[in-house]
Specification:
The chain is mostly beta strands and about 600 residues long. It contains four helices and 46 strands. Helix 3 packs antiparallel against helix 4.
Length: about 600
Amino acid sequence: MIRKVCIYLFFSILIASDFIPEEDSILNYTQVFFKWPQMEDVDYYVLEIVDSLNESYLVHSQKNSIIVQDFIDWNNEYTWNVCGINNLEETSFCYQTIMLSINSLPDYYPNGNQLQLVNDGVYDGITLLDFDGLGFSVALDQASNPIWFADKNNFNPSKIIVTQILDSGNFIGFGGGNGYEFDINSEILFETPSEYGVHHHFIKSDSTYFFLDTIIEQHPCPSNCPDNLPNLINWQGDHFFEIDSDGELIWEWNTFDYIDLVDYNPFYLDRLSLNYQDGDEMDWTHSNSIFYDNGNIFISVRNLSRILKIDYNTKDLIWHLGDEDFMNQIYFNNNIEFSQQHSVQILDNGNILFFDNHTFLEPEISRCIEFNYDEVVDSVNIVWEYILPDSLFSGSRGECDRLENGNTLINVGRTGNLIEVDSTNQIVWHYKMMNNNSPVPSYRAERINSLYPLAFSFELMDLKGSYIENYFIESIDTLHGYINNKGWANQLYEYHLFDDSESNIFSNNILIPGNSVSQFHIPLNELSIIENQQYTIRIIPLSNRNKFQDLKFNFENLFLGDLNQDSIVNVLDAILLVNLILDSSYLANGDINSDNILDILDLILTINIILG
């Protein structure tokens, strides 16, 4: 049983980076990362969350941060506060209560979603997906409960399809012809310049963005041109771009420059001739994905049923694979039959995984395909496939995503179904997206551990004092600290020591695996440390430098027993110590035996110092 023996410490100014979520936060998610300043000499912390009905939720944490996945729900208001518990199971002190609100789910959230199946072997985590038919993206827990949504009203026009979550904790997505990077609160951090359009795919690789735009050029109508079409027609191709965070062009690739015009699908020429009006265009390529890997670009060209590998540096075509009826040059000695495919990606083993819609083929049955290729002998080989039942045929959209445990998450595009199959092709999870009794089409889905690839806190060893009354550290040779990486991504952190003039007097970095704690060290004996001067420890995650955290403190050379700080220990200090003991108060330089309490033993030791 924890015995409370303290008075709550109240203060009016909360620094946002010190308390997360900050005061009066309004969130669009129910999986919440909590973080608070370090407390002196506590064995653990107790986080208490209280809802609007005064129901309370308590959780213990050894570190000064935690991710809460339970209790918090939509359309509710909460308070939270943290108390530190010492080795006597007593509450040392508690921080001020902080207000927190969770929004309601939007009124456009689908009303008929159904969890069809959950079996043993499902890969644990949350599912990030888009409701393309409704124009926004969400994250669901394993029981299909929504735990986050992107607020489409923050985007213009009101649509956002998430394609990626970054190690920085930011999201990548597109909508309404624009590409975006935005944070967990749907605040836009980057938007593609107005001279570009974006369709089907927008991703980030390191610090640059890749995406697809349409391009229309006028070229001769092919030899089997329908009679009602002119000699020159508009061909709609694709222009692939890479731009940096300033919107500056880095790389581009144009289908008109590298794909022969004799390679076209007659179906789309015939479609153009139907109800043709001057200015209409033939949908020549209709690409739908781009993937950068190790100096190569892989793209999916849907209307040619073709996958291409491109040398990033030279832009030359290395090979293409697909429907040989629309292919002027054949690269491989054998072929894989697929059609109208989506979402080509490269696996860690170098194989290629994609969703084969199988449109216009007999029978029209969609599937996932994983294949390898040999550029020496020019061969391809299917190493795995999952054939969907004919009831789940999807003529458009779709994605296959390999999970860390070997399972595959399959977004069945137009059908609104999302299934997970294990390595033996058994369905272990099935979710159906429905609204008003109709399927909700979807582009992509991804399984992640939590909403937080980046979430951290840090603590310093031997830290004394408090957040309220200032921290200090006794003079030591080496400063030791711990960084608690609560996020699931491996993170590289810089740690710095600044003096009171904000000069950086020490820097280093440390790589910390996801969901782990690592120690860092600063050799103070190699630095010019001035006592009673304020210093700052700053921890910076390189994946998102804006998420840095600071802790300010002084170095002090404690004169044990000198409670009135007059540089001598005498009877005045003994009298002060008696008063502190009677008031159950604590002062570090009165704790002569370093047992974290002031009592008669410290008084005896103080008298001994005075006497001798």
